[in-house]
Amino acid sequence: MLWGWRNVVCNKEETSCPANQVFRYNLTTCQQSCRSLSDGDKYCLEGFTPVDGCGCPDNTYVNEKGTCVSMSYCSCHHQGLYAQPGESIMKDGKRCVCRNGRFQCVTVDIHPH
């Protein structure tokens, strides 16, 4: 049996990740991304064979710029556009604010009493 082969063979890859990422075993297409918070897992491929490579550390998400950020810094995605954290949009008669990668919406009363 071979023991510790990854440490010798893969050590270069483990240290070549971008500064804000870490080397991970068994990456899939369903990695944590800010966009997945808004859109769900509709971009995951069924039957994708996991691979080794660079990904975000635990409790962080890759944003649209390829940077790993905490959830509170995730932008929100809607109809091809990105809204920054704290930014609001109107959506289906509701005012929606981007928080933690998801829009939180409230109905807007256009006829105040």
TrEMBL record:
<dbReference type="InterPro" id="IPR002919">
    <property type="entry name" value="TIL_dom"/>
</dbReference>
<keyword id="KW-1015">Disulfide bond</keyword>
<dbReference type="GO" id="GO:0031012">
    <property type="term" value="C:extracellular matrix"/>
</dbReference>
<dbReference type="Pfam" id="PF01826">
    <property type="entry name" value="TIL"/>
</dbReference>
<protein>
    <submittedName>
        <fullName>Mucin-2-like</fullName>
    </submittedName>
</protein>
<feature type="domain" description="TIL">
    <location>
        <begin position="17"/>
        <end position="74"/>
    </location>
</feature>
<dbReference type="GO" id="GO:0005615">
    <property type="term" value="C:extracellular space"/>
</dbReference>
<dbReference type="InterPro" id="IPR036084">
    <property type="entry name" value="Ser_inhib-like_sf"/>
</dbReference>
<dbReference type="InterPro" id="IPR050780">
    <property type="entry name" value="Mucin_vWF_Thrombospondin_sf"/>
</dbReference>
